[in-house]
User: Fold these one by one.
Assistant:
Number 1:
Amino acid sequence: MKGLGLFSYNSLASTIKTVISKPESVRYNHDFSLPEYGENMTSLKEAAGKSGIYIGTVPDDSNFSKVLPSEFNSATAGNAMKWGKLLVDKKIGEYDFTTADRITDYVVNQGCRMRGHVLVWGRTPNGGYPAELDGIIKKSATPKEDIRTIMKDHINVMLSHFKGRVTNWDVVNEPMQVFGPKFANYTFYNILGTDYIKDAFSYAREADSDVKLYLNEQFFDYKDKRARNFLTLVKEMVTEGIPIYGIGLQHHIMYNEQSIEDFDWFLGQVAEMGLKVELTELDIRKPVFKKSRNPELSQAEAYYKIAKSCVQSGICEGITIWGIDDAHNWYDFTPPFNGKTKGENAPLLFDRNLNKKPAYYGFRQAFLEN
Ligand code: XIL
């Protein structure tokens, strides 16, 4: 996975350290490095399949054929389906689907489910959306109509191109401020308010009546004002009959573990609204546990606990790990986690040589116990 410069958590890194002041986990209740965990040969997808949960990954060119078919039954195309990444010369309306199609066809031919990521994402110009859009809207005499048309056209193109191959879509990604409690002031939001989110879902449903539609977000804390504001919007969407099927929770663990109690509370809120949930981008940086006696085992315990909560929630349809092995993880290329910490992020289930880590066994154990 190459760093595409879409993100910089640099300026915000110090903020989050003060915002999130929970003590770091230093304990673990299992030793997932014990041989007994390795003796069981059940794959991730078989173990989770008993609970009706798909296990996904982000196929990486160099290794996906080695692991994907045996362990995973779902995939997300990383950056390849992002709006800005699909355009020829960054021009709105001109698409090059070569990479996205290659990944999708490989995945579908393996009998795996394909998640679509993502239709509308206002945060990253030329990544999540075409930068050209900002200029067009600024000059427009009818910005509301124009931004709706551009968004609708894109959604139509995507859903017709991937019809029958992609079954689940992240319709809107990261509508909230990264660390603040409000909706982020992306161009879409500035022109349409939260209606841009609702409209995107309606357009997607009009374009394809079968796909499952998700609102995807990253939470550092599942019970704070930010999470509650998000849930308020979702509730509004449900009440208004907006065709939302589920909530996508990225669940990147970058700095501190989220409280499991808060996570369970959040899952309960989603369940009450009659919606499903997926963990769409799970990964857990090892340095989160730097105070642990054994960071690797603490990481494994964290994977175990999260998977356990998902199973127990009864509304979880899938868990996607954001990558396969530690040699290909996005933190190694993303400030402020790259550079010095390169090689140490080690957030995934397989090590740099594609060996199963304690994290693999911990994650799987949650399903085996069900
Ligand atoms: C990341 C990719 O993994 C990186 O390769 C890229 O440089 C930036 O984007 N939230 C999301 C994902 O929704 O699309 C992001 O993926 C990670 C954060």
Number 2:
Amino acid sequence: MIVCRTKEELSNEVLNAKKQSKTIGFVPTMGALHKGHLTLVQNSVEENDITIVSIFVNPRQFNQTEDFEKYPRNHQDDANLLDEVKCDVVFIPIYNEVFNDESKLNVDLKGLENILEGEHRPGHFQGVVDVVHRLFVLVKPNRAYFGTKDYQQLMIINAMVKYCNVDVQIVECPIVREVDGMAMSSRNKRLSKIERENAVVISKAIFEANNLNENSTISYLKKFVWDKLNVNKYLTPEYVEICEQKTLKLCTADDCVDNKILLVAVWCGKVRLIDNILLNSK
Ligand code: AMP
């Protein structure tokens, strides 16, 4: 596996691949890799001639300094894992390699950036589209892989690609979970043992809500999940919402025309966790 630290090194690899008409699969990450990330990489390896993974903790998408500073970083472990799943190139840039100017990408995200995650993390999605667009320009991928763990992010990336007319196929990959159901996340590494034991209540609550869906109203389901989380002394729910799957329009009563998705953000100590589940249709 080739490790690129600069734009020039990366561009050489991209140019070589393009000259040989090889397809490029791309997986942008912030590192601290786990099986969720590696599944995206494996999908890319299967579907493309070469796979490029980026590891970049993008300060522009963090609205809390502590979250940025404490974000787990371990490039050597990450590189070993990527090598094992046959990644071809890993791009691990420093800040100035990605942001060599202060300009910000201006994308009309149609308000998607202001709800759910966007409401609680102002500026987050502008930071995400900015970095992903810059990485797309460098990597020139045929396909790029994103997890539904960050469901709203996936929708935002789709909106950015459409708005900016980027020629890339966005491939969505389902949430990979731990054996007990907890969604894998780099931030799980920051949980203490007791916090981790209690954090499983998040996935349990949304799975239970899914089982109740057929016979329950939206407000009942939201309150059911909120209460399950809120009653646990290690957890503080930030939002529990049910939205239309395709548009992320909030469902207030039983007025959703599309399939529904339940999304939550929960604080577990000082760590903010998100999860979601597509609700079985009624
Ligand atoms: P991150 O490093 O957290 O920015 O994530 C990089 C990519 O991996 C994003 O597209 C995430 O949605 C995806 N991802 C993170 N955790 C999981 C998971 N548990 N299952 C599937 N995809 C994931």
